[in-house]
């Protein structure tokens, strides 16, 4: 499975001159050309185009005059989608084929181009080193962040209280962000001294539900076990580039696991040296009897034709739940090819999975309190 560059998606739309295609060694469109938007500056040398459709019905388009020329950019092609599809398909079949442009250049020019390729190769090596060192820098700063994350977890879980200095600094930050906060709200909060409250209840559940993507994943049934979520940590992998998300849970009525993990692995892009997502691996959840949220049990009565006896058949049907996040998405074995629809579905699942892992790593874990308060939504 090729890597997915979640961080580098913006590069796909870097050019403002997408309509211009200069002479290149592979001078074919990256995507199917929008036929109806092309402008034709010369009168075609043929009187028309005849297409044999699947139903053997001939479609003739007159291209002999000015009206025909106008039709190339509008009405004619808009009304003949089969012809558009045929031409786009033929253009698509040219993708990646050499245009002969480089081969037609003078030998001295081709020699210089080969020299540039050498320089580009050296540049790519430096880019690869750059991205490897960025990963090492991330590891270094995770070690610096860790004491803050540990103190955060202790406060959330009620193991310690913030110092007066920390509280004062937090109040100051709040006043800067919300200078017109109603005074009665602050006064009410200061007078609400419930000694029975420990830590910050449902901290992670609240923060996750404030995230637009995760909010859609979390069902009503998921909320009870997620109330037991104590902390979410990140650890970088040692065997190969990547990281693990570690979800720590208090004892609960749903599963026996103290931790659930999701690990993501990187591979290095040969073109730009980026570390892109290669694969991910989930974990098994040890569900307690009758508490598996990933399936629902459907019951069906079945009557035997001969004996006329009735029996009840139970069948486990997959169920939508946040905890499906911890599944390992199955990918085909080497040499096994999927059809286009299956491949598109797999690609969509993998990309969504990688994006969610990136959200946890880059946004949710580092800025957990902002997701809890809703500041991250501003």
Automatic annotation (TrEMBL):
| Compositional bias of kind Basic and acidic residues | 1-14
Can you list the GO cellular component terms from the UniProt entry? Answer: nucleus
Task: Tell me the segments the record calls region Disordered.
Answer: 1-30, 159-192
- Compositional bias, Acidic residues, is annotated for 163-183
InterPro entries registered for this protein in UniProt: NAP-like_sf, NAP_family
Q: Which SUPFAM superfamilies match?
A: NAP-like
Gene Ontology biological process terms in this record = nucleosome assembly
Identify its protein family. Answer: Belongs to the nucleosome assembly protein (NAP) family.
Q: What is this protein called?
A: Nucleosome assembly protein
According to its UniProt entry, this protein's organism is Syncephalis pseudoplumigaleata
């Amino acid at each position: 499975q090729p890597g997915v560059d979640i961080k580098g998606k913006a590069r796909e739309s870097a050019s403002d001159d997408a309509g211009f295609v200069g002479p290149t060694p592979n001078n074919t469109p990256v995507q199917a050309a929008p036929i109806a938007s092309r402008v034709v500056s010369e009168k075609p040398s043929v009187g028309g185009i005849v297409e044999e459709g699947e139903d053997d019905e001939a479609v003739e388009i007159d291209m002999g005059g000015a009206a025909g020329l106008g039709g190339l950019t509008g009405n004619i092609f808009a009304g003949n989608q089969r012809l558009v599809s045929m031409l786009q398909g033929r253009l698509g079949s040219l993708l990646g084929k050499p245009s002969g442009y480089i081969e037609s250049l003078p030998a001295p020019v081709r020699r210089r181009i080969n020299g540039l390729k050498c320089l580009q190769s050296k540049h790519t090596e430096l880019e690869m080193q750059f991205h490897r060192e960025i990963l090492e820098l991330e590891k270094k700063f995770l070690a610096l962040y860790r004491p803050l994350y540990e103190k955060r977890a202790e406060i959330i879980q009620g193991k310690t209280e913030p110092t007066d200095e920390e509280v004062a600094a937090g109040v100051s930050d709040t006043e800067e962000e919300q200078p017109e906060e109603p005074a009665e709200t602050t006064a009410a909060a200061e007078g609400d001294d419930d000694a029975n409250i420990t830590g910050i209840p449902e901290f992670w559940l609240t923060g996750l539900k404030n995230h637009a993507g995760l909010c859609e994943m979390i069902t009503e049934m998921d909320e009870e076990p997620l109330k037991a979520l104590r902390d979410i940590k990140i650890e970088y992998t040692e065997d190969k580039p990547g990281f693990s998300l570690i979800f720590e849970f208090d004892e609960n009525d749903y599963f026996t696991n103290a931790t659930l993990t999701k690990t993501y692995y990187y591979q290095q892009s040969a073109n730009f040296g980026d570390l892109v997502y290669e694969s991910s691996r989930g974990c098994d959840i040890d569900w307690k009897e009758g508490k598996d949220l990933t399936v629902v049990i459907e019951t069906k009565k079945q009557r035997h034709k001969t004996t006329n006896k009735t029996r009840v058949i139970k069948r486990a049907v997959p169920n939508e739940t946040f905890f499906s996040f911890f599944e390992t998405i199955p990918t085909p074995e080497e040499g096994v090819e999927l059809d286009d629809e299956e491949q598109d579905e797999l690609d969509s699942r993998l990309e969504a999975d990688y994006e969610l892992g990136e959200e946890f790593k880059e946004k949710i874990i580092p800025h957990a309190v902002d997701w809890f308060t809703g500041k991250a939504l501003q």
